[in-house]
TrEMBL record, chain A:
Biological processes annotated in GO: cell projection organization; microtubule cytoskeleton organization; mitotic cell cycle
Organism taxonomic ancestry: Eukaryota, Metazoa, Chordata, Craniata, Vertebrata
TM ranges: none
Protein name (record): Tubulin delta chain
MF annotations from Gene Ontology: GTP binding; structural constituent of cytoskeleton
Broad class of the protein's primary localization: other
UniProt superkingdom: Eukaryota
Native source species: Oryzias latipes (Japanese rice fish)
The UniProt record lists the keyword Nucleus: yes
Gene Ontology CC terms, in alphabetical order: centriole; cilium; cytoplasm; microtubule; nucleus
From TrEMBL, chain B:
Coiled-coil ranges (or none): none
UniProt cross-references to InterPro entries, sorted A to Z: Epsilon_tubulin, Tub_FtsZ_C, Tubulin, Tubulin/FtsZ_2-layer-sand-dom, Tubulin/FtsZ_GTPase_sf, Tubulin_C, Tubulin_CS, Tubulin_FtsZ_GTPase
Similarity remark: Belongs to the tubulin family.
Name of the protein: Tubulin epsilon 1
């Protein structure tokens, strides 16, 4: 089954291009025929000339980012974007969610829907749709939200996964917190699952694990692509009966998003290291999974500076202990293991009841996917997709900063011009405070 | 890709504009080596040769490029010089509007008299320029505030732009008179013009002659070898007009070059590729939290390049520090002592996102931001550097320090106004009455008050407003 990706805005188009690059180079590496076939069917289709063409639609309100992504893909030579599967305009959304959502989105609805429909019709079987965008700017966030809404209307029964890039906390776009609040509040009603990458976290991975200096956006996007690839490439799932799963998005959603109040997923991957060191390193599954589990419960997003003092609260009585205050409670976790000896990996320490919310049994809360094929040159690698309190802190920061700005009515006139009133803002704030409170309550 | 139209009004506006077109051509010549007419070139120029392959040799001889500009002056001097100069082919007569008698340093003559006489003609020329764009995004108005034409007619044009093209951005570069300006009526002209700027512009970039002069002097000192480790690249657009079409330097040219560079660097991220684009409509969107407070303090770095090419990271960090030092500001003001409402860092050239983050974190503690915008940074990365440099930074600060400049201007105005000096020259003009003066001063007062009330929040620690509570 196939996934159709919709890339929106400068960020979405840059990250999407890196993702397809990782997927393609991983799929085409030697000795993996069924894996390769499964991956290619999922993300690419063959043109009459035998070229791999990404099952993707590129959308932006401004031409430069799309042009550069398409050229980059062509230059790589392994795959490319469809000649006609992009849509751009001349003038961007000006970092304003309202401009994207109320003006550009509705104006170009038909054109975008047509492009997506064409891409969907090329699939033998549609596994679902994935949108990629940032929440900071105007096009990704505003048009992206609007288009997600349209797709939800046209494909009511399909899985829709939104991949979001969250901006640097110290500011990329001044309106980023307003735009994030409006995007998240709306997507929460529409999406089946929201996968989040924070630029700050990924920046840390680039500088501390990968030793990249100086760090460019390409480096950051490549890390995101690697982590996403680890999730999206074919794997054997509990329901797939020994062959590669046909329904990656559906199984992801059913493994992780069992409750409509909880849709925010974070991703962490282990190991990550400079590509020059990869061939000289070897790992044991026990070691990797021990680290990954501590990263999960201590909410450390990379394999460095892990706080080993954090322990799950005592099983008896389930009373919040002092030591447990920094403990990251999960609702559900999906562990994806790829590489050598994958069937010997022991995942028991992810199945303890103490790391999950009391109202879900570990058997329901934990799932594992496996594939014996090494991913993206790593002999062994583990990716954890987690529906936990990991994003509570960053989400609260966004809501708090946006609320402070809203209290002084700064910048509101810019949104009002395009038809987003103070009441619309209040609705979004209410919705997100609800999400924040739900995640905070996971513990008890 | 979008297009912009430059509207240059008055003597000063046209002189700055002239330098802008010269440097813009040089920039395209150095970026676009093959001389093909492309999207980037189209943002400021139109191609009048539609033959197939339409090559246009940028730089050498201008054959097929016309500037997207409207030139207005109520004297003939500057514009006729432009028409005799090497850039004459950039403009055709449909883009020009001149009169012979000038505005006599009188805002009222420019705004009321000429404004009414030439209204239709100006609108017509603006419309023609707009029709030649396929997606017009922005008008750049260049003028000075001290005189009569730029100040009076310039702000009249600004009003017309708002009426005729409400959806198009209006970014104004205004030359503010120095305290010892030789035009005696300049405080009147400036205050009257300020009201129009406050009400009708999206962004104003205030620039002062004295600051430009200081910057030019600094560049010349380095060029003449005051410090051996510093040097000025001969071909840099910032430091000299050499290499451009126009070879002989006139006294004001060096100063006007700086303003031209400001416009080039502000628009580069919308014209060229980069990993973090900034479209022109994002500037006002991010930097203007309240519609009237749209005066942005610009600063440009580096002014010259260090000869030592090895100290790259240090040199980069120095560039960011410099952007927050007074020496690099295009107007005398003190943002570090006041409060930032928002700040944009627009970087060109070989600079990465990690350099940007590192410097924001480094500079952040020394700057005070308004409580609700503690992370008020807008950032841009354009991969094409300015001519003659490997990288550059333009900082635009929306800062309450502008209040002091406005208070000082108000003081100079009051000194004249109390004695009713020269007032009759203004009141003679049809359409002008004392009401215009009182309205202009009260507009300026309320602007100063708005800055004041924001400044007041700085003294007290503002607690976070109580959040919405969810019933559980």
């Amino acid at each position: 089954m196939s996934v159709v990706t919709v890339q929106l805005g400068q960020c979405g188009n840059q990250v999407g291009q890196e993702l397809f690059d990782v997927l393609c180079s991983d799929a085409l590496a030697a000795h993996r025929k069924t894996y390769s076939t499964a991956s290619c069917e999922r993300f690419f289709h063959l043109t009459s000339h035998g070229d791999l063409e990404a099952r993707a639609v590129l959308i932006d309100m401004e031409p430069k980012a799309i042009n550069s992504s398409m050229t980059k893909a062509l230059k790589g030579g392994r795959w490319r974007y469809g000649e006609a599967s992009h849509f751009s305009q001349k003038q961007g959304s000006g970092n304003n969610w309202a401009n994207g959502f109320c003006v550009h989105g509705p104006r170009h609805k038909d054109a975008v829907e047509e492009l997506v429909r064409r891409e969907v019709e090329r699939c033998d079987r549609l596994a679902g749709l994935m949108t990629m965008m940032s929440v900071a700017g105007g096009t990704g966030s505003g048009v992206g939200t609007y288009i997600t809404q349209c797709l939800r209307d046209i494909y009511p029964a399909s899985f829709i996964l939104n991949h979001l890039t969250w901006p640097y906390g110290t500011g990329e776009v001044i309106l980023q917190n307003y735009n994030s609040v409006l995007t998240l509040a709306h997507l929460y009603q529409l999406s089946d699952a929201i996968v989040v990458h924070e630029n700050d976290t990924v920046h840390g991975i680039c500088s501390r694990l990968l030793n990249i200096k100086p760090i460019a956006f390409t480096d950051i996007n490549r890390v995101i692509a690697h982590q996403l690839g680890g999730v999206l490439q074919p794997a054997l799932t509990p329901d797939s009966n020994g062959v590669y799963s046909l329904n990656p998005l559906g199984e992801l959603v059913s493994a992780l998003c069992c409750h409509p109040e909880y849709k925010l997923l974070s991703v962490s991957t282990i190991p990550q290291m400079p590509s020059s060191s990869v061939p000289y390193s070897s790992f044991s599954w026990t070691g990797l999974l021990k680290h990954l589990r501590q990263m999960l419960i201590s909410n450390t997003k990379m394999e460095e500076g892990i706080d080993w003092h954090v322990r799950p609260p005592a099983a008896s009585g389930r009373i919040r202990s002092v030591a447990g205050s920094s403990f990251n409670t999960s609702l559900a976790n999906l562990l994806i293991l790829r590489g050598k000896d994958v069937y010997c990996a022991e995942t028991g320490n992810f199945e303890e009841a103490t790391i999950y919310t009391p109202w879900l049994s570990p058997a329901e809360a934990f799932s594992a996917w496996k594939s014996p094929i090494p991913f993206n040159k790593y002999e062994k690698s583990a990716t954890l997709v987690s529906n936990s309190q990991a994003l509570l802190g960053p989400l609260e920061d966004i809501v708090r900063k946006a609320w402070n700005m809203f209290a002084s009515r700064a910048y509101i006139h810019q949104y009002d011009t395009f038809g987003i009133s103070e009441d619309n803002f209040l609705d979004s704030f209410t919705a997100l405070e609800q999400v924040v409170s739900s995640y905070r309550e996971l513990k008890s | 890709m979008t297009q912009s139209v430059v509207v240059q009004v008055g003597q000063c506006g046209n002189q700055v504009g002239y330098r802008f077109w010269d440097l813009a051509l040089r920039e395209y010549a150095s970026v676009n080596k093959r001389g093909l007419y492309d999207d980037a070139t189209s943002s400021f120029f139109r191609n009048v040769d539609w033959r197939k392959g339409a090559a246009c040799s940028v730089g050498g001889q201008i054959q097929h490029l016309k500037a997207r500009a409207v030139l207005v002056d109520m004297e003939e001097g500057v514009i006729s010089q432009i028409l005799q100069g090497p850039l004459r082919e950039l403009f055709d007569s449909a883009q020009l509007l001149t009169d012979v008698s000038g505005s006599g340093n009188n805002w009222a003559t420019g705004h009321m008299t000429y404004g009414s006489v030439y209204r239709e003609l100006i609108v017509d020329k603006l419309r023609k320029a707009a029709e030649l764009c396929d997606c017009l995004q922005c008008f750049f108005l260049i003028h000075s505030l001290g005189g009569g034409t730029g100040s009076g007619l310039g702000t009249r044009v600004l009003g017309l732009l708002e009426e005729e093209f409400p959806g198009v951005s209006r970014i104004v570069t205004s030359m503010y008179p120095s305290a010892e300006d030789d035009v005696i009526t300049s405080p009147y002209n400036s205050v009257l013009a300020m009201r129009e700027l406050t009400e009708h512009a999206h962004c104003v970039l205030p620039v002062e002659n004295q600051s430009l002069m200081d910057i030019v002097q600094k560049i010349q000192m380095v060029a003449h070898g005051a410090k051996p480790e510093l040097m000025v690249r001969r071909n840099a657009t910032l430091s000299s007009g050499q290499g451009g079409v126009h070879e002989v330097e006139k006294p004001f040219d060096a100063m006007n070059n700086i303003v031209a560079n400001l416009l080039l660097n502000m628009t580069s991220s919308a014209r060229f590729e980069g990993s973090l684009n900034v479209d022109l409509n994002e500037i006002a969107m991010n930097l203007v939290p309240f519609p009237r407070l749209h005066y942005l303090v610009p600063s440009l770095t580096p002014l010259y390049t260090l000869a030592d090419v090895n100290a790259v990271p240090r040199r980069l960090d120095q560039m960011f520090s410099d952007a927050f030092s007074k020496d690099h500001q295009l107007i005398h003001a003190n943002p570090k002592q006041s409060m930032y409402l928002a700040c944009a860092l627009m970087v060109r050239g070989n600079v990465h996102v990690s350099d940007l983050r590192r410097n924001i974190e480094r500079l952040r503690p020394s700057l005070s931001f308004v409580s609700w915008n503690q992370e008020g940074w807008k950032t841009g990365l354009c991969s094409v550097p300015p001519v003659g440099h490997s990288h550059s930074l333009l900082a635009l600060a929306n800062n309450t320090c502008m209040k002091l400049n406005f208070m000082e201007l108000k003081e100079r105005f009051t000194k004249l106004y109390r004695k009713k000096a020269h007032l009759h020259h203004f009141l003679h003009v049809e359409g002008m009455d004392l009401g215009c003066f009182t309205e202009a001063t009260s507009s300026l007062d309320s602007l100063i008050e708005e800055y004041d009330s924001l400044d007041a929040t700085r003294a007290q620690a503002t607690p976070d407003p109580p959040r919405l509570r969810i019933a559980t």
